[in-house]
Amino acid sequence: MLVDTGACERNAHVCHHRRSDNGCGDCKVRPISVCSVLSLVELEQLEGLSQHLTLDKGQTLFGQDEPASAVFNVIEGCLRLTRLLPDGRRQVMGFALPGDFLGLALQERHSVSAEALGQVKTCRFGREDFAAITEAKPHLLKSLHARVRYELTLAQDQMLLLGRRTAEEKVASFLLSLRDRFARIGHNSVTVELPMGRQDMADYLGLTIETVSRMLSRLDRAHSILLVPGGVRLLDAARLERLAAS
Amino acid sequence: MLVDTGACERNAHVCHHRRSDNGCGDCKVRPISVCSVLSLVELEQLEGLSQHLTLDKGQTLFGQDEPASAVFNVIEGCLRLTRLLPDGRRQVMGFALPGDFLGLALQERHSVSAEALGQVKTCRFGREDFAAITEAKPHLLKSLHARVRYELTLAQDQMLLLGRRTAEEKVASFLLSLRDRFARIGHNSVTVELPMGRQDMADYLGLTIETVSRMLSRLDRAHSILLVPGGVRLLDAARLERLAAS
DNA sequence: CGACTTGTTGACGCCTTTCAACGTTGGTGG
DNA sequence: CCACCAACGTTGAAAGGCGTCAACAAGTCG
Questions:
Q1: Less packed terminus of chain A by CB within 10 Å, N or C?
Q2: Mean pLDDT of the residues in chain A
Q3: Are B160 and A112 inside 8 Å of each other by CB?
């Protein structure tokens, strides 16, 4: 379980992008990322400082307690953000989707580790570079600030869920929030993709894998959802909302 | 449980402080508050925009979902930050101590309600005024940004605690973290004051009041702690650390 | 003192975990 | 093509930790 500094990027595919066809101007996630507040001129300045970085399923972008040498925009794919207890118990702090920014906390060391749940494409900025950019561009700092504040309210939602909700409420609430997140990045459907495994869901919701499986089965039997390979079809979202009791 | 806008300040003692003996220059919590990054000149500008506001035990500073019309520095006392589920279940998101800043999330509406656990003194800034100040002073924005980022890692700690720790670990961990927080604001002692009731601790840790009471009794019988009126004396902090398993 | 709030303790019950077995899927190689 | 295997998911039975219910103690305020 040891994670070296930079280990993450050893097997990853790095690409210093020049003013080519995958520059910032063509970035798929620009409108939903922190970069949305930057002008075209500013984006050109950014291009030289960023690298594209691709991870395969299971690879680690950065590890817990590892020096935070960079921050990332997620362009494509899904990552799992986890924190470990010394005895091996694991808490998934969240899942990062396209448009999300990794490294908001920007401490000396990463407080979580980030692992790819499938193929992932990211845009990497060195820590020093990024600090200099935010220093020079107050509106970017404000955008980042707004994002952390939003993350904080999400964390509070999760604290309420972990502390005061039953297993069934947790699972129902999780499916709905995932649907909403996918909707916000353009992937709008009654069928919600589940890029993470049952164990990841369990560690996110403070449950065991068996309980998650049982609750999904129960919702399926009640025709609230339909379990499909790789995801879930929400048949009765209204009932889920009632269960989630938000 | 209805909370009117401004209801908070109806019964509170408001004091527009002028360049008197309790101006920003003499502020007890300045070195540990967000204001620590401001120069004396800037503090003078601030004084006209701030009000002192005193609450008695049980009074509400602001309520959940109430429009966020102001932000606050806590000068003295302790507040409870809570979020409510429609059915009445409650999660305490945190406790605010002197030097803490309330309203960091700075959304349209407050995501939590803040209630005084004893007599509380705060320094109030109108939302518009405060937005203008941060707009004009980038270093204040950076200081606020650093604070939210820190809050976010604290929230992650709490998520790990809520999701993956046993009742005993939760209580032990809570006592230690409270000791550390008091230490950081100058109140350094083996006897940890508990300004909140058992129910508040329970709602913070995702437990019931009975379980909190039982765990405290168990730690007391094991001579790890000594229950004293209004607080706890930590007799064997090392054992607590081991229990907390951080 | 008496009513009320807050905290403690015990007995019991239930929801979730634990332990275990089985089914399913996907990749590999005979 | 299919046997084989490992990883993942599902389901059942039993156990246990924490919640629920209830009684009691302690402190507070009129």
A1: N
A2: 91
A3: no
